[in-house]
Amino acid sequence: MGIFSRTRDIIAANMTDLLDRAEDPAKMIRMIILEMEETLVEVRASAARTIADQKEMRRQITKLETVQANWIEKAELALSKDREDLAKAALVEKQKAADLAEQLNEEIGLLDDALKASEGDIAKLQGKLREARARQNSIVTRLESAHNRAKMREMYAGPKIDDAFSRFELLERRVDYAEGRADAAGMGAAPKTLDEEIAELRSSDKVEAELAALKAKQAGKEG
């Protein structure tokens, strides 16, 4: 695909339609922006080459004008020496240079038209690029928000919550078992020593502390 035909395609493209058809809008708009930036660079480079070609053509025209003047002088000299045949031949060469200069002027005119069209394309392409970049910022923000909402819904309704409550139940059963052992140990047994009672309190405190930490962590997530 040529540079200018691709530029026309980009300018004519409706970005909303492109993004509606994209599976990944963020990736799609990055590709659109990259394509626009690359095309803009190529169009400008092509315009620069065209301008350089015009300058070279104008230099050639200037040289051809000098050539024409030289042939006219030679024709005049030939006529002054009664050599009409040489004068005619000099004028033929002068006309060849004039025809070539005219052809170059026509090509310069065509290149001028192409440059004007290119300038308009560059302006439109820059507008599209600004629009695409603005869309990119909006899309990225919206996608991040959507992903965050999805994570929150998964947290509240997903298996993580069920797992947390299962762990709560397990810890509560461990507390019940510890309390049951403490109660059972006191049945028909000799009174506990002070060290034994303090050790049991410490063991129970550890379980209660772990349970409280889990509840605090869960409360933090729900908040």
What this model shows, in words?
By secondary structure, the chain is mainly alpha-helical. It is 91% helix and 0% strand. The protein is built from 6 helices and no strands. Helix 1 crosses helix 3 (25-80).
Assess the beta-strand content as a share of residues: under 5%
Number of helices: 6
Main β-sheet description = none
Task: Report the count of strand segments.
Answer: 0
Cα-atom radius of gyration: 44 Å
Uncertain regions spanning at least 5 consecutive residues: none
Cα(first) to Cα(last) distance is: 56 Å
Based on secondary structure, the structural category is mainly alpha
Task: Indicate the percent of residues in helices.
Answer: over 70%
Inertia-based shape: rod-shaped
**Average pLDDT figure:** 78
Sequence of secondary-structure elements: HHHHHH
Q: Structurally, how many domains make up the residues?
A: 2
Main attributes of the structure:
single chain; 223 residues; mainly alpha; 2 domains; Phageshock_PspA; Phage shock protein PspA; coiled coil
Secondary-structure map:
Layout: H1 3-12, H2 15-21, H3 25-80, H4 84-157, H5 159-185, H6 194-222
Helix pairs in contact: 1-3, 1-4, 3-4, 5-6
Keywords: Coiled coil
Coiled coil: 87-135
Family: Belongs to the PspA/Vipp/IM30 family.
